[in-house]
Amino acid sequence: MAYDLFSADDHVIEHGRVWTDRVSAKFRDVAPHVIEEGDREYWVYEDTRSAQMGLNAVAGKSSDVYTPDPIRFSDMLPGCYDPVARAKDMLDNGIRASVCFPTLPKFGGTLFLKFKDKELADECVRAYNDFIIDEWCAAVPGMFVPMIIGQLWDPPAMAKEIHRCAEKGARAISFPENTVPLGLPSFFTDHWDPFWQAVTETDMVVCMHIGTSGGLPSPSPDAPNFDGLGPVTIALSSVNSFVSAVNLSMSPVPNKFPNIKVCYSEGGIGWVPAAVERADRQYLRHRKWSGLDQRLPSDVFRTNYWFCMIEEPVGIKYRYDIGVDRILWECDYPHVDSPWPHSQKGVEEIIGPLPAEERELITYKNAEKLFKWEMAKAPTAVPA
């Protein structure tokens, strides 16, 4: 069986001119740009230099040769950084729509939060958003769902940017799963109200990817890792989504903004029933003394949340507890979790035995509805 697939989580590797082509002349030397030194390429911005980590671009490679060592653009498949080549790679696997997270700005756009010059940071956010909408998504109309980032240090400015980009067709924004580890106010304050109001007004999906709160669980710092990323941390990544979803569900946000749409990316789905059960129990047990007087966490999970999975047979067993209409498939191209170029095989192994209606919901219909993106309008072939 050949599946039509809608991937709710992939990643773009930005090319070296994304920012220098778009920021003001006065910022071109300090905005992100690529330099060559020896046999390596480095991103340089403000007073920082960083290399492209190999694990971010393993598409087409055997796991036997995975390495976190720095790599050049020439070491990657063109589909990592070229939208037309990416579309061809997607279509080769039956993937006809894709939502792409950023790489250099970090998945949630948190890189620019750390910039000392906030005028530069603001221009870099807007430059990335123009790139993703006007260059990446426009290269193959219908293939890529425009997802933006925001000015995390300035919620009113972020709200303005959300409206600007919504007018250009943006359907989603990547946002940190937890703001507190980033040194920002929590969801229990009204600090983020301009943001939540803006995504409500524009009907924009809030995508929360694992690791956007600054890292993944690392119980043993001496376990094999590269810059905090290794087998242990990757295996525990669902913990981030668990923490975020429960935290947000008990905050005032869902009561104040009951129509928000939050999509948890790469955190899997198997943890959801346990999280809901425990959250409801503790909410009811402690609501009086804690002053909680709002919707049950389970109502938020079933009304405002969606969850992404790649290959998770255990999670599929509990799909009715999660809600079949809440589950999205993701490819995660070009990262280490991705089944590409064997996406069809991976999907068949996990959901092949399911009823046809459920298979269609998980592989594309749920994503179509969430992102308001009709996959029928996506291309079935890319011109040479």
Write a structural description.
It is built from 13 helices and 13 strands. The chain has helices at 83-92, 118-139, 155-167, 193-202, 231-235, 238-250, 253-256, 272-290, 297-304, 313-317, 319-322, 343-351, 356-371; strands at residues 5-11, 33-37, 40-45, 48-53, 70-71, 95-101, 144-145, 147-148, 172-174, 205-209, 262-265, 305-309, 327-329. Helix 3 (155-167) packs parallel to helix 4 and helix 6 crosses helix 9. It has a six-stranded parallel beta sheet with strand order 8-9-10-11-12-13. 45% of the residues are buried. The radius of gyration is 20 Å and the shape is globular. The two termini are 27 Å apart. The chain has one domain: TIM Barrel, CATH 3.20.20.140. The longest helix has 22 residues, at 118-139. The protein has 384 residues and is α/β, with parallel strands linked by helices.
Tell me the layout of helices and strands.
Blueprint: E1 5-11, E2 33-37, E3 40-45, E4 48-53, E5 70-71, H1 83-92, E6 95-101, H2 118-139, E7 144-145, E8 147-148, H3 155-167, E9 172-174, H4 193-202, E10 205-209, H5 231-235, H6 238-250, H7 253-256, E11 262-265, H8 272-290, H9 297-304, E12 305-309, H10 313-317, H11 319-322, E13 327-329, H12 343-351, H13 356-371
Parallel strand pairs: 1-6, 6-7, 8-9, 9-10, 10-11, 11-12, 12-13
Antiparallel strand pairs: 2-3, 3-4, 4-5
- Total number of distinct structural domains: 1
Mean pLDDT: 94
Main beta sheet: strand number and arrangement?
A: 6 strands, parallel
Strand content: 5-15%
Give the N-terminus to C-terminus distance in angstroms: 27 Å
Order of helices and strands: EEEEEHEHEEHEHEHHHEHHEHHEHH
- CATH homologous superfamily name? Metal-dependent hydrolases
Q: Strand order across the biggest sheet?
A: 8-9-10-11-12-13
| CATH domain fold name | TIM Barrel
- Count of helices? 13
CATH class term: Alpha Beta
**Architecture, CATH level 2?**
Alpha-Beta Barrel
